[in-house]
Every structure is written in C-alpha cells, then in structure tokens.
C-alpha cells in the first residue's frame, strides 16, 4: 500500500492524461468519419 500512498499524485495525473488522450482520439475519429461520409466514402466491416 505504500506504493499507492507515495505515488498517488502521479497515478491521478497519469489517469487524467490518459482519459484526455483517449477522448481527443475519439473526437478525431468521429470527425474523420463525418468528413469521409461527406465525400461519399463507405466502410463495410467484415
């Protein structure tokens, strides 16, 4: 338990940054999908 007590601030920072990173990537993917659909591209999964 000492590990969590000593590194609590670093872990919180890591989790917050990871969440922000995933959110930004999700927004970029959604915008890219909208642009592709605007130009008539379609993706059909297997």
What does the model show?
With 46 residues, the chain is an all-alpha fold. 78% of the residues lie in helices and 0% in strands. The longest helix has 31 residues, at 8-38. It is rod-shaped and about 55 Å long. The termini are far apart.
Give the structure's gist in a few sentences.
This protein is mostly helical and 46 residues long. The chain has helices at residues 2-6, 8-38. The longest helix has 31 residues, at 8-38.
What distinguishing features does this structure have?
46 residues, mainly alpha, rod-shaped
Average pLDDT taken over every residue: 89
Largest sheet: none
Order of helices and strands: HH
The computed structural class is: mainly alpha
Proportion of beta-strand residues: under 5%
The radius of gyration computed from the alpha-carbon positions, rounded to a whole number of angstroms, is 18 Å
Topology:
Blueprint: H1 2-6, H2 8-38
């Amino acid at each position: 338990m000492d590990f969590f007590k000593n590194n609590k601030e670093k872990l919180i920072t890591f989790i917050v940054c990871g969440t922000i990173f995933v959110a930004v990537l999700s927004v970029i993917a959604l915008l890219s999908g909208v642009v592709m659909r605007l130009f008539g591209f379609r993706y059909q999964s297997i």
